[in-house]
Amino acid sequence: MRAKNSKKAASMLVTVMLLSTVLAACGGNNGNKEGGASSSPAASANESSKPVGEKSKVSVWYLWGGAEGEALEQIIKDFNASQDKYLVEGLSVPDEQKIKVAIAGGKGPDLTDSFDFVVPQYAQQGIALPLDDLIARDGYDVSDFVPAALASGNFDGKQYALPLNVNFSVMYYNKKLLADAGFTEPPKTSAELYDVMVKTTKVNSNGTIDVLGSPSYPSEAYLFNALAYGFGSTYVNEDASALTFNNEGTLAAMNMIRDYNTKFGVDNIRQIQASGKWLDPTDPFLIGKQAIRFDGPWLSATIKSKQIDVDYGIAALPYLEGKPETAGSGITGSSIFYIAKTSKNVDGAWEFMKYLYSAEPLAKFLSLMGNVPATKSAMSSPAMKDMVDSDQVIPLTMSPNLKSIPHFAKRSDFDKALAEQLELMYNLKKTPEETMSKLEGVLSATLK
Amino acid sequence: MIKKATITGLLFSSPFLIGFALFTLYPIGASLVYSFTDFNMFKSPTWVGFDNYRWVFQEDEVWKSIRNTLYMVAFATPISLIVGLLLAQMLNIKVRGQSIYRTLFYIPSIVPAIATSLVWMWVLNPKSGLINTALDYIGIRGPNWLLDPVWTKPALIMMGAWGAGGTMIIFLAALQDVPRSLYESAEIDGAGKVRKFMNITLPTISPIILFQLIIGLITYFQYFAQAFMVASMSNSGSVQTMAGPEKSLLFYAILLYREAFVDFRMGHASAMAWVLFVITSVVTYVIFRTSNRWVTYGGD
Amino acid sequence: MSSATSAFSRRFRTGGQYRRFLSHVLLTAFSFVFVTPILWLLVTSIKSDKDLYAIPPVFFPKHPRWENYADVFKVIDFPGMTWNTFLVSALSVIGVLISAPLVAYACSHIEWRGKNIVFAIVIGTLLLPYQVTMIPTYIIWGKLGLIGTYVPLVLPAFLSAGAGYYIFMLRQFFMTLPVSLVQAAKIDGASEMRIYLQILLPLCKPIIATVGVLLFLATWSDFLGPLLYLNNEKDYTLSLGLYSFMQTHYIMWEKLMAAAAMFTVPIIVLFFFAQKQLIEGIKLTGIKG
User: Fold this and answer.
1) Does C36 touch chain B (CB under 8 A)?
2) I need a surface site. Which of A22, A135, A346, C209 has the fewest CB within 10 A?
3) HSE-CB of C17 using CA atoms within 13 angstroms
């Protein structure tokens, strides 16, 4: 009797195991399998001699979707057609945590993208692979990159990532709203900006805001760095050894937001911020309900691709009143591509990376996204003409006053603390002075 | 004879026991070990003793997240229970189209979270949303639900109550099981609706209430999905911190997720998970022990 | 009851009719609250771009755009993902329905030493936050090289992992079955397996159906599991596929809502037809103790 029982149980177990093998077989046609289960990056670097006729697979995951994802897929297609050694497979994964977890589990992509501010974190956590050996091996010319952008992929003397673009905010203004309020020119200085912000704001009879004059949409958090750096602020010195946060530019930015929020009411501004989605046709700027907007050139691309009817102009960010020498100031950042530390096809990833960063593909890809490329060759490529408003935006990237925040180990803690304290100030729960003295303490602690 | 029964018992339990060993016991052990280490999934763990637990009890954000979570546990659990019971009570009357009503009330609990979150973004839109438009009609200015730190949690509680369909079904089954004879004898005594509900319905279904209460508590102690969606969809600029305005949506499970998968501090995350396990167990135990004061079992 | 309502009820001649009328009013009012967001989902799914962003908002579009549903198929492989979702859900249900009644039986009708210990373990797993086990489990699957397959989503079901709630329900049901039934069979010399398969399981059909439906509803919309373990668009389940409609800068509202409607319809239909069974089944478990 007992034998019978256990036989049945055993057959059940066998069924379970069989099922799981079948599942493993049908679910697992994943590009990553190519490199074998335990080949280290170093081993796979020598492994490129695959049997003739069989392309080695490279998996590229990207955060973009939709039109931007399709643009990258087009580049991938071109690359696959251009050579017969590698086969790149792209996948849109709009969840960065998932990408990181997959890399950690050894089942992630070979190549993927992110933003430059993650570089210190990814370098220290061991997510990204240093590219220096590959650069040296191939004698890859990095001088084509805009130096500041190239530096944004560098941490502790090693190049962990290559920058794709030079992101920075310009000032968009709604010509009609400015004209209605009696302005023929966009504001050039901080004082003029505040004047425009106040005079273009239209308030309903119940106190709520109809037209938002300030660039506080999508949020003050989104605005603050551009506003402060536009006013000539820097947060840390060049090697990030000391805090330079407490300066007149930062204070002016804080005061301006405090004054505007006091005048028009935090609740009313929040209502506008929640009323529409950023870059969606409900975005206040796109429906003609925001007079001034600090945003990247992708806003132009959005307006054009969605055929939105808004008469806008583009100008440099206003400079701090009385400091004309700081005109053209601003803060830049970059999107980056990096090779995963657990990549099983480092050579393939690197080949595709080099292709992606060559002049034509990069210009083709970025002009569609409405981004300024991070290489000089792509910037001067004729394909850039397709970028909406490139004639107005590209000259602004030449300003010597554009700066970026240099990398340091605790950058993410710095950003977190900054956002946390500033939020209380936006909500008028702390004064700019209180916020400044608090931040000086917390921020300098993250620099050590 | 005894031995045979033991073997049979083991055999019948073996799939579960193997699963328990592989997918519960081993991971529990592993996470207990991780909770005493500095570990980021990329580099091998290094022993740090009680540092992670010290961090859990000293970190302001952990305390903030505990306060936010307790808020949800204290308000969302009972409100969801009451709404579920109310719906079940309404449906426990024989009316035409009953199965349609049941389905209508149940649908919200099965629509995927991504769609319901987007729908609620619209319902809660302070300018043109359903709720504020309705409030506007009666002359009240509605709040900025998802951007005002005071209102973010009430908004989530509403969303939770809206999805109380699962609770409703269980209560409905319980209500249908209350013997009619009990009501009939109460009616003879001249009891009204409210008295019947308080004196007969509630005591009879009290074991189910206990069961649902515990499941509800566990759910809200681990509250994650909806807060995560809302925090990552709103414009508050706090996507990276996933904490909502002024950290009002920084729940324990959100912070745990952030420590684990954004900052890759598996030691912190594992220690947090263990503390959560202990808290949940203690609360459940206390409720069980005190439940005999209000729960009546059929036989007694 | 007040005199006004009793006058009202007189007009309906019997109290029953009046009560039914009142129930309908109440139920309709509540349905309205519960259904409006869903209705919005549905009307959004047939809006054109113009209606979608109209100011002031349009509730029902004048010219419904049914093509949104067809467009869903252009953005994602809807049939493929539906099949994947069905496969994962069905296998999970089968897995739990094979393994969970076994342990439920061991915790109820087999008199052995581990009976109460195993049941205590089952209850214990209910209390365990999934966060505790999530990370190490992921690491195990990574070491086994099974990330990117359906194994991590399905295999645990065959071992009843994470099915504590259902084991509990099943066990409670087994407890309501008379011991005499089992004893009589034992005297006749039937093995435990035969008692289980030929006597008890047939009696369990309603509760097994209930557990199956509840489980199917839960796995159909599971998101975290597929998010963690599936790395290839071909393998995606629908809940993951829905994310394709949300992009970094832009949500395809109307298509997302159309997809969500199509995603939900099968489970709504399932619920509609299974509800009576479901409620009866839950009653049978006698979870009231």
Assistant:
1) yes
2) A22
3) 8
Q: Is A388 left (phi over 0), alpha (psi -120 to 50) or beta?
A: beta
> What pLDDT is stored for residue A22 in this prediction?
39
The pLDDT value given to residue C1? 39
CB A107 to CB C138 under 8 A?
no
The SS3 of residue A191 is: helix
- Asked if the C-beta of C74 comes within 8 angstroms of chain A's C-beta atoms, the answer is no
Q: How many domains does chain B have?
A: 1
Chains that touch A (3 or more CB pairs under 8 A): B, C
Q: What is the DSSP string of B175-236?
A: HHTS-HHHHHHHHHTT--HHHHIIIIIHHHHHHHHHHHHHHHHHHHHT--HHHHHHHHHSSS
Domain containing B140 equals 53-291
C115-127 helix and B202-221 helix, angle to the nearest 10 degrees? 60
> How many Å lie between the alpha carbon of B149 and the closest alpha carbon of chain C?
24
pLDDT band at C248 (very low <50, low <70, confident <90, very high): low
Element (H, E) at A63: none
Specify the pTM.
Answer: 0.86
List of residues 6+ apart from A142 with CB closer than 8 A: A135, A150, A159, A162
Angle, CA of A244, A248 and A249, to the nearest 5°: 85
- The one-letter amino acid code at B158 reads M
Q: Residue A91's closest CA among C256, C235, C222, C144?
A: C235
| Residue where the block lists tokens 């994650």 | B224
* Spatial distance between the Cα atoms of C280 and C271, rounded to a whole number of angstroms: 13
In a domain, residue B68? The reply is yes
Q: Do A23 and C49 touch (CB under 8 A)?
A: no
Distance of CA C246 to the CA centre of its chain: 25
**What are the beta bridge partners of residue A209?**
A203
How far apart CA A441 and CA A38 sit, in angstroms, is: 46
Instruction: Say if B3 falls within a structural domain.
Output: no
Cβ atoms of B281 and B39 within 8 Å: the answer is no
Q: Is the per-residue pLDDT at B209 higher than 80?
A: yes
CATH code given to domain C68-288: 1.10.3720.10
| A chain contacts of residue C192, beta-carbon cutoff 8 Å | 5
Q: Would you place residue A362 in the very low, low, confident or very high pLDDT band (cuts 50, 70, 90)?
A: very high
How far is C23 from chain B, CA to nearest CA, in Å? 7
- Say whether C193 and A108 touch across the interface (CB within 8 A): no
Residue B2 lies in a domain: no
Of B11, B246, B261, the CB nearest to A97: B261
List Cβ neighbours of A442 (8 Å cut-off, separation of 6 or more). A417, A421
Chain A residue with Cα closest to C141 = A105
Q: What is the ipTM of this complex?
A: 0.84
Rounded to whole angstroms, the Cα distance separating A233 from A436 reads 13
Q: Tell me how many degrees the CA angle C88-C89-C93 measures, rounded to the nearest 5.
A: 115
Facing B114 at nearest CB: one of C114, C243, C267 = C243
The whole-angstrom separation of Cα C253 and Cα C245 is: 8
What is the tens place of the pLDDT at every residue in C195-218? 889 888 888 888 888 889 889 988
- CATH at B232: 1.10.3720.10
Residue B272 falls inside a structural domain: yes
User: Chain B residues with CB inside 8 Å of A16's CB?
Assistant: 15
Four-CA torsion A439, A191, A391, A289, nearest 10 degrees? 90
Beta bridge partners of A61: A91, A112
d(CA B260, CA A97) in angstroms, rounded, equals 10
- Tell me the torsion sign for CA atoms B217, B221, B222, B223: positive
Residues C150-163: b if buried by 16+ CB within 10 A, e if exposed: bbbbbbbbbbbbbb
